[in-house]
Amino acid sequence: MKARIGSFLFTLFKYVMLIAAAIISLLPVVVCIFTAFKTTEDYNSSSVLDLPKQWMMENFSIAMKQANMLRGFANTTIVLVVVLVCSIFISAMLAYVLNRFKFKGNSIIQNLFMFASLIPGIATQVTVYQIMYSLGLINHLYGYMIVLMGTDIISIYIFLQFFENLPVSLDESAIMDGCTYFGVFFKILFPLLKPAIVTSLVLKGVSVYNEYYMSNLYLQTKELRTISTALYAFTGPYGNQYNYICAGVLITIIPIFILFLIFQKQVYGGMAAGAVKG
């Protein structure tokens, strides 16, 4: 009897905690949706959880035009494609060298990557900004992309995990058949890294799409704003227009949400494979 009561209380506690976590997670989204459809007067005179008195669809068109979000989406798309492609190849090739070639300092390099991951990125921004300024890379998309496509330590370790599970005999057989090291990597090993590539694309893609600090720091003109900084148009010294900001936030969520629905099988497959490898 006591065991049944204990099991029931544990199950009840578990579901209460899950429901509370779901409410805490969804509450900001609900507030954002309600705010996005309110007029400025309605927002200033009502609670954030009150339903809009009048559902203003015009807020979305105003957000698109005044924040120039189409330009923001274009800049973000260019940055996203270039950074993801370059980061995947750089991380995969670094992991290939560190895993397949044993040389003096190999373990030291891997430990240095681990040490670098412990340093907060913002702590190095003074030095990085000085380097970027001296090279004339401020207010240029390519400069911003170079910063973002720098060594991605998480992706390197993801690829290292997958290389550990690919037998060295694949490399040896290909080399005996006359294949070069580049051929081994691009023709044999790289196609086998699909789960790792998907995992890295998801993690890096979300990070780049939502990146705000460096975008605001290195792209200071309106024409170069990304989607994460485009909504600055509705902020100012006399207050912020949160109804337009929330409308813009919902617009920025839509592309990622659609892509997730289309590629959710690949996303879950890549995440699961990355979790069990190693």
Can you offer a commentary on this structure?
This protein has 278 residues and is an all-alpha fold. Helices cover 72% and strands 0% of the residues. The chain has 13 helices and no strands. α9 crosses α10. The longest helix has 35 residues. It is globular, with a radius of gyration of 24 Å. It starts with a helix and ends with a helix. The model has no long low-confidence stretch (mean pLDDT 84).
Compact overview of the structure:
With 278 residues, the chain is mostly helical.
Q: Please give the number of β-strands.
A: 0
The computed structural class is mainly alpha
Given as residue ranges, the uncertain stretches (5+ residues, pLDDT < 50) are none
Let me know the largest β-sheet. none
Strand content: under 5%
Distance between the termini: 44 Å
Roughly how much helix do the residues carry, as a percent range?
over 70%
- Quaternary state reads single chain
Number of helices: 13
Rg to the nearest angstrom?
24 Å
Q: Shape, please?
A: globular
Q: What is the H/E order?
A: HHHHHHHHHHHHH
What's the topology here?
Blueprint: H1 2-36, H2 40-45, H3 58-66, H4 69-100, H5 106-117, H6 125-134, H7 141-148, H8 153-164, H9 168-176, H10 181-189, H11 194-210, H12 213-218, H13 242-276
Helix pairs in contact: 1-13, 3-13, 4-7, 4-8, 4-11, 8-11, 9-10, 11-13
